[in-house]
Every structure is written in structure tokens, then in C-alpha cells.
Amino acid sequence: MGVLLDSFNLARRDLLIESRRAYEILSTVFFAASATILISLAWGTPISITIEEAAASLWIIIFFTSILLFTTSFAREMDRGTIGGLRTIPSSPFAILLGKVIYSIVLMLLVLGVLLPLSIVFLNVQPTLKIFELLLILTVGVVNLSFAGSFVSSIVMYSEGKTLLLPFLLFPISMPIFVPALLSTEKVLRGLTFAEYSGELRLLGAFLVLVVMIAVFSFETILEE
User: Domain extents for the chain?
Assistant: First the structure.
């Protein structure tokens, strides 16, 4: 409970700082909205977009939007010189990482709140009665991506080329997230039952456990560097 409380406090601190720089949040949301409209124009008309194209477009937009958030996750602490303060707070290193993950999840869910309605209009996403299942898959995928992205952000924060390194490292690491999330999204949009895409959700759950275990054992060393 102490770790969770520290994490929520750190996430609240980051969100308060972010709210004072609203232009960064708005620019991320605007990027997601612009990408949705541009992809729709590239495919021709929304009606002509297939389920496979809609699911792929949706997750491509989510991936590239997340890069904008993860790039500033730990880099901002380095730029402001506050990383030393994070090292000295009386909480576990994993709580610091978890705080960044919660912060990223909140912002990504905010982006999804804008992206999903636009996808229904411009990408021909028709969830019908499967809207809650679609939200479940998107949320699980975002949680996985937030853990992986925050961890990669912590690895590259000491590098001068962190803005370039993060996409290069995040892309291969996110493949175990991207593939099952894409397949399960496609199956939900086709109206398939939960049993037919539960395997993909189990893969996402297994990858999340793996990332958490790696972070627990290695983040303290990363933070001390």
C-alpha cells in the first residue's frame, strides 16, 4: 500500500505540472486527431476502410502518440535537474517508475477519449455492442505500453540522443504488445466472442508480468546511474 500511495502522489505531481503546461497535452491530442483524419483521407473514404485497416490504423496512431509522452517522461526530470530529488525521496525505486506509469496511463486514456470517437467517424470503427470489450482491449494495451515506454524512457534518460533512441528501442519492445492488441481489436470489431480473442489478452497479461518483473529487479540500478 505504501508503494501505491507513493506512486499515486508522484503521478499526481506530474499531472499537476502537466496541467500548467496544457499546450503539451493539447499538442499530443491534436497529433492523434490529425493522424486519424490524414489516415482516413489516405484510405479514400471512411466507408471504404476495412476492419483490418481500421484496427491497424488505430494502433499505429496509439503507438506514435505514446512516443510523444514517453519522450518527456524521465527526460524532463533530467532537464530540470530534479532526478536527484527523486533518488532521495523515502520510497522504493519501483514506486517512482510506477508513478510515471500511472501518469502515462492517465494521459493515454485522455488521448483515447478523443481518438475513439474520431475513429468511429473517420476510420469506420463500428464497435456496435462490443464497445466495452473494445475499451477493455485498448486499456490493457495502453497499460502494457505505458509500462514498457516508461521503462525505456528511464533507460535512455541519461543519453544526449534520448529523443532519437527512445523510438528505436520502444519499437521492438512493443511488438509483443502491438501484435496481440491489434489481433484482438480486429476480432472485437468483427463481433467475435471473448473466447476467440482471450488468447491475445493472456499474451498481453504475460508480457505485462514480464515487464514488471524486469523493472522490479533492474530499475534501482538504472536510477542510480
Answer: 2-224
